[in-house]
Amino acid sequence: MLPTYEKIKLDQRVKAKGRYNLIRTEINNLEKKLMNLLKLLNHFLRVILHLLQMIQNNFILKKYQWW
Description:
mainly alpha
């Protein structure tokens, strides 16, 4: 049987480790959400870029049409 002081120290360490694991899990979840948002933003920007390129090409074609 552990003396009371050592038992309290052990309990505090177990609680601290539990809190650490909860925080770590939360950080991992936030990292995943952030990565998904960045992927979505990347996709959105690529679509906008593609549309702008199509518009630009359309204007170039109209400008140089000779028929």
